[in-house]
Structure formats: structure tokens, C-alpha cells
Write a structure and sequence with these properties.
Layout (H helix, E strand, L loop, with lengths): L6 E4 L5 H14 L11 H7 L5 E6 L2 E10 L9 E8 L8 H15 L4 E6 L4 H9 L3 E12 L2 E11 L7
Parallel strand pairs: 4-5
Antiparallel strand pairs: 1-2, 2-3, 3-4, 5-7, 6-7
Length: about 170
């Protein structure tokens, strides 16, 4: 029997411990982020846009999350945000990431976001593929952009330009 599509709903403060545990697991892979530890709710809340922030629910539990961070405080970049999408270990390949990213794209346009960007390690092939399938294009490789565990790492910069927002 096929699983039902995940339910996507807004991320609430009371979801934080579940969201944080998914984030911690992503950090542990060494392929999801340059972060080395998950922040407190207060810190995380302060660096992410208020909306959209989403969680995916399947089998009555949170199995993924997505949110946006501003790329700059300058007013000219008010419609540009960086994407975060995380799926719980054991839930990859079930459409959770796609459901989150597609909903995030749609909801971001409702809040006036005209460009979404993602910075992904080249080794994270499935994330790059997911973003491309959701309308992101590769801008380029940021070579040796950061050092993690004493090793220089590259990231692939991808972006998606809205066809509905910011075209006036």
C-alpha cells in the first residue's frame, strides 16, 4: 500500500525539539550544512524569516522541515532568501523534501520573495537534484568557500527566480 502524501503545515515554536532533532541528524552527516551544532529556538527563530516556516507530518510525526533565511538586511534584497530543507533519517526518498520545497516556493511568493537560493555541498547529489526539479538553476560553484573539520569545502549555488513576484 502506498503512503499518503505528507501533510505540510506551519512550523510552530512547540515543534522545535522535533525540528531540532532532524537538524542535528543533518549536521551529523557532514553533507547538509557548515553548522556544527543546532542553535536554541531563540537563535534559530531570530535568523529565519517569520514565514514561510513549514513542517511535514507523516505517520503522525514531524518528518521534515523547511524555512527561509534572509540573504541580507539591505532593503534591495528584501525579496531574496536562502532555503533550508531537512528530512528526517529514514524518511528520504518518500517525497517529503519535494512536498516541503514545492510548498515553500509557493508560500514564499505569497510573502513577496522573488528569488530563492540554496548553497549545497556538491556531494549532496540528491538535494541538488531535488532543487533542480523544483525550478532551481545552478549559478556556479563556490570553490573553497568554507573550511569544515580542517578541510576546504565547495558549495554549489542554485537559485530560483519567481515568475509571479518581482516582475513589475
Amino acid at each position: 500500500m502506498a503512503e499518503d502524501a505528507p501533510q505540510i503545515r506551519p512550523l510552530l515554536e512547540e515543534d522545535w525539539e522535533f525540528v531540532r532533532s532532524i537538524y542535528v541528524a543533518g549536521i551529523a552527516t557532514g553533507q547538509a550544512t557548515f553548522e556544527t551544532q543546532a542553535p536554541s529556538w531563540e537563535r534559530w527563530n531570530s535568523v529565519h524569516l517569520p514565514a514561510p516556516r513549514l513542517v511535514a507530518i507523516s505517520s503522525e510525526r514531524i518528518v521534515g522541515w523547511s524555512a527561509l533565511s534572509p540573504v541580507s538586511t539591505r532593503p534591495v534584497y528584501a525579496g531574496v532568501a536562502e532555503v533550508s530543507v531537512y528530512v528526517a533519517r529514514g524518511w528520504h526518498g518518500r517525497g517529503i523534501g519535494r512536498a516541503l520545497l514545492e510548498t515553500l516556493v509557493n508560500e514564499s511568493e505569497k510573502t513577496g520573495i522573488w528569488t530563492l537560493q540554496a548553497s549545497i555541498f556538491p556531494e549532496n547529489v540528491s538535494s541538488i537534484s531535488l532543487h533542480r526539479s523544483c525550478g532551481f538553476r545552478e549559478v556556479g560553484t563556490r570553490e573553497r568557500i568554507g573550511k569544515m573539520n580542517a578541510v576546504w569545502r565547495d558549495t554549489i549555488l542554485l537559485e530560483r527566480r519567481s515568475r509571479r513576484v518581482g516582475n513589475d
